[in-house]
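Hello, quick one for you while I still have it in my head. A protein chain has come my way and I'm curious about its shape. Can you walk me through what the tokens say about the fold? No rush at all, and the record is pasted right below.
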Amino acid sequence: MQPGSTTPSAAMSLRPADGRRVRGAFTLVEILLVLAIIVIAGAIVAPYVQDNLRRQRLKSAADTMRIEWARAHVKAMKTGRIQVFRYKLGGNQFSLQPWVGGDEATGDDSQVAGFEAPTEEPIEAAETKELEEGITFAAGEAKFETRAYQVEGSLQSTDAGAEWSKPILFYPDGSATDAFVIVSDAKQDAYRIQLRGLTGTSYIGEEQKLEKLTAEIQPGQVTP
């Protein structure tokens, strides 16, 4: 027997027990078929993935509003100053800033210190932020209050033409303006975030179509 040669029994051991020949590689047709299957599967799955990401952004925007309101609520009580929250209807910007004078007031008396002079300016520039990309403030309302009205009048002189919402106030005693906002995306899915004035706390409603949420809004009504 020559060196390096194999016996018939050894050669047979290189094959599977059923006698089929082992294949060493895929053919070009098989590779193209696999690629085609991957492309088709990706085309089917992609819309569901994109829709899920869109809905996550919308929910994240609603959570952002709830968190920002909670932050304003706590900040008003810690600093002893009224915190003024506003947003741009149809846009995605919102702002928070403290207010000069009369911050200890919790009633609707328009003659309390600091509010009889509506020309006073905020003690610092507004902290402006934005919602998640593609999300806008679709609707909103705040309960009419004498204090909020006077704050709004003072703020208008510093807005440089910007169209901001009515101010939503957070007070040092833990209360706030009764208000709500609705955030929506390009697919017209939306969330309503409700602010309870008595406690200064907020909650997020269920995801609904914007048309349904806006149809439920009554003029001057800020609670569901």
Q: What stands out?
A: The longest strand covers residues 189-196. DSSP finds four helices and nine strands in the chain.
